[in-house]
Amino acid sequence: MPVAPAAFLDPALLAKISDLALLARTVVDGFMHGQHRSMRKGSSLDFAEHRSYQPGDDLRRIDWRVYGRTDRFYIKEYDADTNASALFAVDTSGSMNYGSGAVTKFAYARMLTASLAWLSQSQGDRVGLATFTQELVDVIPPSVRHLQRMLHTLAATKSGGPSQLITSIEKIGLLSQRAGIIVLVTDCYEKPEALGRAVDALRMHGHDCIVFHVVDPAERELPGDDDTTFEDAETGTLLPLKPRALRDQYRSLVSAHHVALQARFTAAGADYVRLDTSEPLDRALHAYLDARLTRSRVR
Amino acid sequence: MNFLVPAFLAGLAALAVPLVLHLRHRDRDKPQPFPSLMFLEQITIRTEQRQRVSDWPLLLLRLLLLTMLVLAFARPLFRSGAAAGADARSRAVVLLIDRSLSMGYEGTWKRTLDSARAVIGRLNGNDRVAVVAFDDLAETRQRLTTDKAAATGALTGLSPRARGTRLAPALRVARQLLLDAPFAAAEIVVISDLQRAGAVGVAGVELPAGVTVRGIPVGPGTWTNSTVHAIDAKRVQQDDRLLLAVKARIQHFGDSAPNERTARLILNGREAGVQVVALNAIGETVVTFEPVPAPEGTVAVQVALTPDALAADDTLVAVVPRDDDLRVALLGGGGEPLFFERALGIAGAPSIRIERQNEPRSTSVEAAVRVYWDIPPERSLQTFLEGGGGAVVVVGRRLAERRGAISPLLPVSLAGTADRLADRGGTLRDVRTEHPLFAPFREVPDALSAVRLFRYARLDVSQGADVLARFDDGLPAVVERRVGNGVLLILTLPLDNRAGDFPLQPAFLPFVRQLVMHASGRDAAPLWRATSERWALPGTLTSPVVEAPDGALLRPTADSLGAAVPLNDAGLYRAYAGQVGGETEAVVAANVPRSESVLTPMDTTELLLGVRADGSATGDSVSSATSGVQSDEVLERRQSSWRLFLAIALLALVVETWVATRGRRGVARRVATSSRNP
After folding, report:
1. Which residues on chain A are in Cβ contact (under 8 Å) with B672?
2. CA of B575: how far to CAs of B6, B522, B559, in Å?
3. Average per-residue pLDDT in chain A?
4. Which of A17, A223, B36, B238 places its Cα 20 to 30 Å from the Cα of A1?
5. In whole angstroms, what is the distance from residue B82 CA to residue A65 CA?
6. How many Å lie between the alpha carbon of A187 and the closest alpha carbon of chain B?
């Protein structure tokens, strides 16, 4: 089974698709085309049937009991049954408007969110949207009928302004009484401990959290060599520096931050996926599906 | 380097301004947008990194600009070597040595050479000296050199010459020599008897600022001098002998009373008379020699006094031309030519004899010139003219009544009469003073413009004629035509006192004499010329060679006068055709200008005040002449270094402006201090 063509998932090419719905469908179809057929069947726990193992199938779906009896590999297929509520919380603050390559972080987040929502919808999930900066900007409650509205809102959203990440996450957690999946798409410019506590709160409400940390390659490396004045995208603060002299220290701080986030989110029981805006979306989609699958198993 | 206005140097404190600005400079690049400064703000950035000077080239340009401006306003000046005393500094000295005739006064020339050697001897090793000898011209004997021996050697061979004195050309030559030493302490030393007459034109000489002029007077403290001022010589007829009567005019100058002098008359090299003269203390003394038989042809006359302290002006030479007697036939006119006749009859050399011819068309074969007074000339005039005779046709009232051509020989036609009574008379205009007819008026051209003319004939001039003068209304006044070897002159210029006042003007006498002399082909030659003149040889002389008074042979060079030789020495110049020897074709006498005999000196201050320095009061030059040290003001004005500094500042400004608007330049925004994490 061939892997999904990278072209369908290349952010640089995807950015040229202005229709978000088309983009999402293209991504999901491309992604699903490259995935095991079993993914189309969904990942419900309700057993449906066995089928012969084909090279490329997920080894975790092999029914080993059948193998013990028959010495042949068979894959379990389940009926699609999620009925899950997925709320996509997208950071639309000014820091998300940064991009050193073909796409900004916000454009990447938007493509990611649209694709994940489309994927969720195709899995039978209810999807919703919440965009935030300092406050919640747009809120679309999860529903099976809200995909198009969500995509439309996403397409019309523009990033900018300062952010209050912790406060926004807290308010997101209060949006729905029903537990579901909260997919947080942000650039995580906040202290790891504070973010961890906020995710803890979401978990206490019964939500499952997947944090997609969107990072631009330049953010890791600190651009510039000679005298450069950096301007904070949200506050406008200016800081003249010599990047060449500070790059090593900066990289260390960024790496430490990422490590801290990984550890804290893991401790909070949330999934943490760090995405580079230059890499294709398939890894994000994989992670999402896996997280969704895990949640389903736990339930 | 010193400064004329050192107070301006306080402006150098302004150099701190760009330095501080550059130290506090925030990067002027367009700010780099960045998602968050969260990590950057955690990094400790050392203070000295932020305070490091950025953009060194721009800072240095601005510092240079400010420095040059301050220095320019402080008026810098440069002095070479020690400033204590003029002799201790490097100098450029131009010696102007007067070698005019007056410098031959007893003892003067020795003092001149001694003074020159003393000036050269006092110069330091690095000082440069030039030697210029001058009389009425300037000759550079030695250009600026540190070789004192060469400068002293330039004095060798110098001696007073029989020339006048003019200091102005020598000062100009000195100014040109000093251009070779723009930054040296420049000095012009004039070694001369400082004759007042030599100062003519000095006021028009401008010297560069800082050049001092110093005079070393070497003339006698007290002086006395006598000179043969002029000679009058004419041929007189006594019974059946032709005698030459000579008078000499002697002038005495000086502080002491004159004494008796002996005057000798020499004709053609042979002594012809001696007179003992008691000179008058004031005015001139006339010495009359006994008339002697006049030698044939041209006579060289020399009157010599017993030598005094200035012997060179004790002898005067003159040349009395041959054919003293000029015969003029006057036809027609009645009583109108009265003034004309009287003027020509006034004694002069040559003497002019007028023959009245009452009958028209009767001629005298002996006359050199025919004057037709208000009557048309006869047809045979052409033959006379072609043979070298001269004719003057005076167009008066009677001829003016005619209309049209007068005679086929005359290149004019009559067109009535011009009456100028209404406008108080006309004058002469457009007089061609370069023509020999008007030679007496070259130095005084205004003499003819004083003439008033009330009525004269209107002439139309045809081709082949030359209009030598016009009235102020443009009508021809004097017309000339060459016919063969002769000259035909037509005058509508009234020579009587009815149609004008010309006979009453001082110009009348020399004009009518020159009129007949020119018509006769013999223009009035002076008895002698000055040594500063050039002698234009007769055009009929083929391959001329001239023997100078000292025996030197001169070949004439072509100039505006034709073939001419310079009259550098006093004495007789003899011209020969082809080679020296045989018959003398022409002879001329040259004498020193009489002004050289007056040794009255000018005051040294008068000399210095007469010389102007560029942009500075002459007082600077005067005071500097005594101390020998250039003041700071004078030196700074001469150097004008502030212009160089200002030019550098302007250049730095242009470059700074160009650099500041290129490359990474932008406007810094105010730094906000808000933070993402309160």
Report:
1. 235-238
2. 71, 18, 17
3. 83
4. A17
5. 117
6. 9
Contact list, B55 vs chain A (CB under 8 Å) = none
Assign B537 a pLDDT band (cuts: 50, 70, 90): confident
Which of B27, B42, B51 should we substitute to test contact with A (largest number of A Cβ atoms within 10 Å)? B27
Pick from B37, B50, B54: which is nearest to A232 by CB?
A: B37
- Minimal C-alpha gap between A20 and chain B (Å): 25
Instruction: List C-alpha distances in Å: B228 to B160, B247, B305, B571.
Output: 19, 10, 7, 14
| From A94, A230, A257, residue closest to B40, measured CB to CB | A230
Candidates A196, A200, A214, A199; CA nearest to A264 is A196
Residues 6+ apart with CB under 8 A from A253: B39, B42, B43
Cα B582 to Cα A231: distance, rounded to the nearest angstrom:
114
pLDDT digits (tens, 9 = 90+) for A220-254: 888 887 778 888 888 888 888 888 888 899 999 99
Task: Name A66's Cβ contacts closer than 8 Å, sequence gap at least 6.
Answer: A50, A72, A74
Return left, alpha or beta for B247; rule: phi > 0 is left, psi -120 to 50 is alpha, else beta: beta
Which residue type is seen at A246? Answer: L
| Structural contact between residues A98 and B35, judged by C-beta atoms closer than 8 angstroms | yes
Consecutive H or E run containing B192 = strand B185-192
Answer yes or no: is pLDDT of A168 > 90.
yes
> For residue B322, what is the enclosing H or E element?
none
Using DSSP bridges, classify how beta strands B325-331 and B351-357 pair: parallel, antiparallel or unpaired: parallel
Is the pLDDT higher at A61 or at B182?
A61
Q: What integer pLDDT is reported at residue B666 of this predicted model?
A: 38
Contact: B40, A250; criterion CB under 8 Å: yes
User: Residues of A at the B interface (Cβ-Cβ below 8 Å)?
Assistant: 94-96, 98, 105, 162-163, 187, 189, 191, 216, 219, 222-224, 227-242, 245-246, 249-250, 253-254, 257
Which one of A220, A232, A253 makes the best mutation probe of the B interface by having the most chain B beta carbons within 10 Å? A232
- Residue A200 CA to residue A260 CA, distance in Å, equals 15
Per-residue confidence (pLDDT) for residue B547, from 0 to 100: 92
Lowest mean pLDDT, pick from A237-241, B245-249, B625-629: B625-629
* Interface with B, mutate which of A104, A167, A190, A237 (most B CBs under 10 A): A237
Q: How many A-B residue pairs are in contact by the CB < 8 A criterion?
A: 97
Q: What's the pTM value of the predicted model, to 2 decimals? A: 0.45
Residue A39 Cα, gap to closest chain B Cα (Å):
37
- What is d(CA B453, CA A115) in angstroms, rounded to the nearest whole number? 123
**Measured between CB atoms, which of A233, A236, A250 is closest to B35?**
A233
DSSP H or E run through B335: none
Q: For residue B562, what pLDDT band results from cuts at 50, 70 and 90?
A: low
Containing B288, the helix (H) or strand (E) segment is strand B284-288
Q: How far from the centroid of its chain's Cα atoms is residue B344's Cα?
A: 35
What's the mean pLDDT in B264-282? Answer: 90
Element (H, E) at A294: helix A282-298
Asked whether this complex has an ipTM greater than 0.90, the answer is no
Contacts of B633 (CB under 8 A, 6+ apart): B4, B620
CB < 8 Å to B41, chain A: 239
Instruction: Encode pLDDT of A104-140 as tens digits.
Output: 999 999 999 998 898 888 878 889 999 999 999 999 9
* Interchain pair B674, A237: CB under 8 A: yes
Is residue B125 very low, low, confident or very high in pLDDT (cuts 50, 70, 90)?
A: confident
Q: Residue B529 corresponds to which tokens in the numbers above?
A: 């010329």
